[in-house]
Design brief:
Strand content: 5-15%
Shape: elongated
Order of helices and strands: EHHEEHHEHEEHEHH
């Protein structure tokens, strides 16, 4: 079994996984770079700088909108060399909750590629109970790491040297996810393990307000919950007559069929007139049924100062 680091961009190894290379200094380490859809083996026995240098040709400052690989693509890269298949606890990747959404999605993709998750396409030889995730850039969630590895001064210098020489354009990138800032070059690298189900929930959480909200499975079963369906139906039923009253034509001139109101003995949707009956407070100073021009409490009534 071989240790595997699966990252979206080649420079991520230098930024977040140097301690993994240190812990496997006497072993080959397979690096999968999702953006390039390529892999490279970092041989045992080389210095940290020599290993990082092998990743230099795969650094691509652009390509920020390129299509991401799917789980089957990642699985294919992992099984190209059977001896390189990762064992339990030997696969590192991005956190599915990383604030940099493309890295978060890639971490989720890696988890799906190797975990026996319903609907996953992972080969039996790649079925892993969990992956090890770098905490990464995560300003909105507090993550309790299973491992916190401090790097040495020499390792920090190697990180900075690699970025300056091979990824200098990223120091002034206009793409927020690719911009390399001081806080994205951690002196303590933190990791936690996540099962496929946990990875799915984390990705669903971090992507819930973005364009990827529908990519993850429905971990909270909103789409299958009878309660949620009834709640949303009730909300839509209440809002619809307020937005476009029954029988009124829309801007395109198309008539909207009316439905009898429940208060009139029909079975239609509730409307604004139901407010008092449903417990909504009346405006202050207004009695039931009062209107303009008449006495309070009577149709057309109003109170005038003497």
């Amino acid at each position: 079994m071989t240790a595997v680091i699966a990252v979206l961009h080649a420079e991520d190894v230098a930024l977040e996984f140097v301690s993994v290379l240190r812990d496997h200094a006497d072993e080959d380490v397979l690096v999968i770079v999702g953006q390039a859809r390529a892999s490279v083996t970092l041989p045992a026995g080389l210095s940290l700088r020599e290993r990082l240098e092998l990743l230099g040709p795969l650094v691509e400052p652009g390509g920020n909108t390129a299509e991401l690989p799917v789980p089957a693509d990642v699985a294919a890269l992992l099984v190209e060399a059977p001896a390189s298949a990762p064992g339990p606890g030997e696969l590192w990747t991005h956190s599915p909750a990383d604030h940099r959404i493309r890295r978060a999605r890639f971490g989720w993709i890696v988890s799906r590629a190797v975990s026996p998750f319903p609907g996953s396409s992972s080969p039996p030889s790649l079925s892993l109970p969990a992956v090890t995730c770098s905490v990464g850039d995560n300003p909105f969630l507090q993550t309790i790491p299973g491992t916190a590895a401090a790097i040495t001064g020499a390792e920090a210098e190697a990180k900075i040297d690699f970025i300056n020489r091979r990824a200098g354009e990223l120091l002034r990138s206009r793409v927020a996810d690719r911009l390399v800032t001081t806080d994205r070059v951690p002196a303590v690298e933190r990791f936690f393990t996540a099962s496929a189900e946990q990875a799915n929930r984390l990705y669903a959480l971090i992507s819930s307000l973005g364009d990827d909200a529908a990519v993850a499975d429905d971990p909270w079963e909103f789409g299958r919950s009878a309660y949620e369906a009834a709640r949303l139906d009730a909300t839509a039923a209440w809002d619809r007559p307020l937005v476009l009253p029954a029988g009124r034509a829309d801007r395109g001139g198309r008539g909207v069929p009316g439905r009898a109101h429940p208060a009139a003995g029909g079975e239609g949707l509730p409307g604004p007139g139901d407010r008092a009956q449903r417990g909504f407070p009346r405006p202050p100073g207004r009695a039931g049924g009062a209107g303009r021009g008449g006495a309070p409490g009577q149709p057309g009534g109003s109170r005038r100062p003497r």
